Amino acid sequence: MNLKKGDKVIVTAGKDKGKEGLINKVLRTENKVIVEGVNILKRHRKAQGDTPGGIVEFPGAIHASNVMIMDPKTKKPTRIGHKVDEKGKKTRISKKSGVNLD
To answer: What are the domain boundaries of the chain?
Structure first.
């Protein structure tokens, strides 16, 4: 998976298609990501001790194939490529504009 925490992505499929947000967490074993403001789930929580009960909202995980990284130059979704520089370090680049994503 080429996505990292802090990447700005756009949702390409599902009920939140077209929404943008930053990646909060990457679940590599499940091939999923958690994006802020996308796939908001609600759970009814019972009061426990000092914490009051109520309806809690939190973002759920979505599959990594349903998001694309935003190109920093054109602000459109793009695929991720890799390039090895002179020092031998591998970096991520945007396929549309060739801009470095790291």
So the answer is: 1-70, 73-102
Angle at 7 (CA atoms; ends 59, 32), nearest 5 degrees: 50
Entry pTM: 0.83
Closest CA to 33 of 56, 54, 8, 70: 8
Residue with tokens 């991520």: 92
Give me the CATH topology for the region 1-70. Answer: SH3 type barrels. (2.30.30)
Q: With contact defined as beta carbons under 8 Å apart, do 71 and 10 qualify?
A: no
Q: Report helix, strand or coil for 64.
A: helix
C-alpha to C-alpha distances, 55 to 47, 72, 88, nearest whole angstrom: 11, 36, 51
User: Each residue's pLDDT tens digit in the chain (102 positions)?
Assistant: 899 999 999 999 999 999 999 999 999 999 999 999 999 999 999 999 998 999 999 999 999 999 999 998 999 999 999 999 889 999 999 999 889 887
